[in-house]
Amino acid sequence: MGSLGHRALLQYIDNNDISGLRAILDTRHLTIDDRDENATTVLMVVAGRGLTAFVREFLARGADVQAEDLDNWTALLCASRNGHLDVVQLLLDHGAEVEHRDMGGWTSLMWAAYRGHTELVRLLLDKGADGNAHGNYHLGALLWAAGRGYKDIVELLVQRGAKVNVGDKYGTTALVWACRRGNVEIVDTLLKAGANVDTAGMYSWTPLLVAAAGGHTDCVSSILEKKPNVNALDKDGMTALCIASREGFQDIAASLIAAGAYINIQDRGADTPLIHAVKAGHRTVVEALLKKHADVDIQGKDRKTAIYTAVEKGHTPIVKLLLATNPDLESATKDGDTPLLRAVRNRNLEIVHLLLDRKAKVTASDKRGDTCLHIAMRARSKTIVEALLRNPKHSQLLYRANKAGETPYNIDSLHQKTILGQVFGARRLNTNEDSEGMLGYELYSSALADVLSEPTLTTPITVGLYAKWGSGKSFLLNKLRDEMNNFARQWAEPPIRTSGLLFIVCLHVALLIGTIVGLSTWSAVVGVSAAVGFLLLAYLLLAAVRYCNYQMDMQWAYSVQHGLEKRMTRLRLILQVAFCHPPGPQSDSQAKPVRFHFAEANSASPTGDGAVAHMLAALLDAIESHYGWLATRLYRAFRPKCLKVDVGWRWRRMCCIPIVLIFELALVTVVTGISLTVAYFTFADEKEKEHILVALYVIAAVMGTLICTHLHVLAKVFVSLFTSHIRVLKRAVRSSESAPLTMLGAEVAVMTDMVKCLDAFTNQQIRLVGVIDALDSCDTERILTLLNAVQTLLSSPNRPFVLLISVDPHVIAKAAEANSRRLFTEGGIGGHDFLRNLVHLPVYLLITTLRECERLPRKQQRQQQQPGALEAPSNVPMIKDVTDALMQPPRESLSRKNSVSHMEKQVTLEEQMICGTLQTLNEEAYEDVASSERPSPTELDTPSAGAAMTTPLLGASGSVPAPSGRESILKQQGSVKADKRVSIQQMATSNNNNNNSTKLTPNVEYVSERQPEVQGAGKRLTTKPPPGPRPASLIITRNDSNSQFQLLRSSSVDYDDVEAQEHRTTIRTTLLEQQEEEESAPFVFTVRK
Known about the structure:
Layout: H1 4-14, H2 18-27, H3 42-49, H4 52-60, H5 75-82, H6 85-93, H7 108-115, H8 118-126, H9 141-147, H10 151-159, H11 174-181, H12 184-192, H13 207-214, H14 217-224, H15 240-247, H16 250-258, H17 273-280, H18 283-291, H19 306-313, H20 316-323, H21 339-345, H22 349-357, H23 372-379, H24 382-388, H25 408-413, H26 420-423, H27 433-437, H28 441-452, E1 461-466, H29 473-490, H30 499-521, H31 524-550, H32 555-579, E2 580-581, E3 594-601, H33 608-627, H34 629-638, E4 650-651, E5 653-654, E6 657-658, H35 659-681, H36 686-709, H37 711-721, H38 725-735, H39 740-762, E7 765-772, H40 780-794, E8 801-807, H41 809-819, H42 821-827, H43 831-838, E9 841-844, H44 847-865, H45 882-887, E10 903-906, H46 909-918, H47 923-931, H48 943-954, H49 963-973, E11 1033-1036, E12 1046-1050, H50 1055-1060, E13 1070-1073, E14 1084-1088
Parallel strand pairs: 1-8, 1-9, 3-7, 7-8, 11-14, 12-13
Antiparallel strand pairs: 2-4, 5-6, 10-13, 12-14
């Protein structure tokens, strides 16, 4: 509290009672400079409040103008701070000091500039105030005025000589503060006064940086006129372009790009302007940067590229822009993520489709080994899974395991409603230009490999690739083999815990080393120390290798650890074969990895048995290479079998004692015997030798007992280790040359059991693929011998065989029928039935059909340009394309037992006559003609031949086909048998529709293949045959001249159905072809109205 006089004066000041104040000052002798507790005088109070009359009164009564309070404040400072111009004028007139500073170093001019009192600043400058004075942090009046946007004050200070390039404590100049404020007029004023545009202040700010960060386009334009350093960096390493791109200021970014700013410069986080623009989603800035050829493949923070950032943020329009620049879609982040992996994680289907269309690799995986399918399966996203699997080649990724041993197939199978069950069958095949260029080879191979790689596929299975000779079947087999290997390669080896086995191995090695060291030094302490030291050293080295592999990601450490695990896995398999029973097939419900081993059998082998033997030898060699020669040969000696189908592996026992314990006992006994022998001949005295000798006798007895009880097994092991599988196979073939299939069957059974046993131990499944190719060029006997041997040996149930047979089905059918004609004829079985019984999965290659479709437009064009083309009657509608024929409404066809459906195709009248005549020939001639390309009327050799065909068929109703015409047709196709005759019988009909008295007789004639024995040579069977189907028969019906002919091809015809359908008129000429499954049956050709 102040004195009483000071409080009395403040009371009058508060009440604004000037007269009262004068009265009290006149009547009482109060001290005019009386102070309160802060040493503040009443003059300071009235000056700060702007009470000009009170200030004048106090000054008239002699108040001290230079009086200071405890903070060094004077009346002038108080008046200047609050902008009271009149009070400041009075104080200056009474001698107040203009340059007086408060405790913060601020002068009156600085307070006036800070508060924006323009006239007060002008007054102070006129009174000689220093415009360059600065206070705390070296801040002056110009800095405050520029930073707070007081244009007039800045102009006054600049006019009075204030230094524009003087900065504060951190070097921040007035221009920087003005640009940060965004006042372009102040910026222009400072620039005209010569301000430096490249001065860096606090946080390495330059005028251009702060103007760009604030989005002040005009300020940026003004600064750019002075040619600043547009690539100056702030404390974060960001340029003005980076900041503008991050904030989305398109105009500023365009100005900076035009001024020469670096497009691909990276900040301290390695992000570029493009990455900043993409991250914030500023599409216009991205477009501007891409037009200036910004590098889209630069990796930013965490090794993320621009396309990855766009995918991560979900900016689909920006993703489309970036994809147009062909970015690197396989660049991975520090976590191993690619743009496609991130899109799948975000479940953004549109971006996934965009990336797949740009050929992003679906096979990419992150650090954990997860592929896109792993992520999509965990997210249960059916649409994304379907998009990823639209190319059948990518189905192999379903069986690719991550580092935890999880496959997409297993992840999906854990759920009750699987995604794969919904996707397969409804997915779209990727018919891109690559597949079309390959004529569908890649589609065939990928689809077949997908089927054959299915973990739940039941074997054995025989796949038949059917196509004509020269259609590229061998090329397709090679591609199928590569695809199957690719599918199998995607299965990573399931993680096997080898830590326990590794400890046991290290322990055994440590015991051996301890024994050797202990015996050499004759000290048990030294031996135990050596064993423990080796064990600790081994585990320290293993820990170092593991650290370098997982933490430092060193390649040599990965190679060492992977090689060690691989050898431990081999050792584990050897020990399992020797000491364990394999687990049952139903002990584990998880899908197991699939592996394929291939062997080829072709026409090079002399016989079918020899070809199968070569195939088995190749398969045995592949199995031995895969599992190791020691494990496979030990199998022949021990032959371990599973105890139950639903239990895991079990120890093999002898007298209820696990064999592994017996082995360990024998090992310990041997080591002990060696140790005692060494001790007997080196360190022992006479008394100790007697005790050692007794112990040696006991050890010898134990070892002798073990050897005698296992002598048979040891002999088999010795023989198996020094005899390869191929030598055993050759020995079996040579020992039974009279019946090689018997011995080969025994070897196949052993190989099957061995594969199943080793698969059970290694938790995988091996499929043995036999490839049979180049049979089209073999003779019939060799073909059938090979196929019969394969079917006998490899087609037994539950055997892991996959047979790929690449043949022309007609060649095999003809070979089967030629070698067993009587059986096939009497039993009603055709060659196609034999092939259907052999092949489980027939695949008909449509490659020749694709080629014919490509040739069809050119063929039609040649027909239109041919001047001598035959003309059909005007009332006969001609079908110009197969597609048009298929689009016609279906008609009821002749019934074949249970109404077989047929396919309609265009056929000419000449083809009807040829096919009908050829039915009377033998089976071989028919098959040759049916497999060849049918001639068209425009392809006749001579016009006379065409006339010979059109005259009997398109002439008047009374014309009957002459025998010479039929003979000419037959001569074009091959030799004609004299005893096979064909004729068309003309039946009496009436052309007048009004004459109902004429009875329409069925004009159906049956001509048998066999010559009747009862009738004479010149007499034919014209009666109606018995009801029911008849093989290899010809039925021809025709009426008047306007009748149209139709050819029906079927395996058998019920003649009652033929007569019942004669009244149906046809307006088209079509060929009804039998379905593929009926090609083995006999045929009936019918020409009817």
